[in-house]
Amino acid sequence: MEKNGILFDQVYASGARSEQGMASIFGGFPAHPISSITVQPDKFVKLPSIVKVLKKTGMVHRFYFGGQLIYGNIKSYIIFNGFDKIMEGDNFPKSMPQGKLVSMTNTRLVYMEKEIGSMNNLSFLRFSP
């Protein structure tokens, strides 16, 4: 995306937890100190979604997460946003480090680079360390 037009190099999300940042980035919803909107499906379905807006332009959306998406109901929120492919810890090759809160290691980044390089269309990608 950088070479073909758009680079977001100064994007900041509110909150201290992954699910709070994702709700802020994808839905424009600020973090709250007590709970996260991602654990409230009856509310998050009413939020806007930049992923859904960009999808209308023909972009492919992929979401890569180093750990497990069960925390903070992240997986439900990501599915709601309409990502075309969702990769979490267990979906990566077994030769890579596994765990509940595994970070994006160099081996995972190399894997993603190869996968992204094979794509023929515009893409909106999100990976979380």
Q: Which short descriptors sum up this protein?
A:
single chain; 129 residues; alpha/beta; 12% strand
Describe the model.
- With 129 residues, the protein is of the alpha/beta class.
- The chain is 31% helix and 12% strand.
- The chain contains 5 helices and 3 strands; from the N terminus they run H-H-H-E-H-E-H-E.
- The chain has helices spanning 18-27, 41-44, 50-55, 74-81, 106-117; strands spanning 60-65, 85-87, 123-128.
- The chain has a 3-stranded parallel beta sheet with strand order 2-1-3.
- Strand 1, helix 4 (74-81) and strand 2 form a beta-alpha-beta unit.
- 22% of the residues are buried.
Shape: globular
Strand content: 5-15%
- Tell me about the largest β-sheet: 3 strands, parallel
Number of strands: 3
Distance between the termini: 20 Å
Radius of gyration: 15 Å
**What is the helix fraction of residues, given as a range?**
25-40%
State the gist of this model.
This protein has 129 residues and is of the alpha/beta class. It has helices at residues 18-27, 41-44, 50-55, 74-81, 106-117, and strands spanning 60-65, 85-87, 123-128.
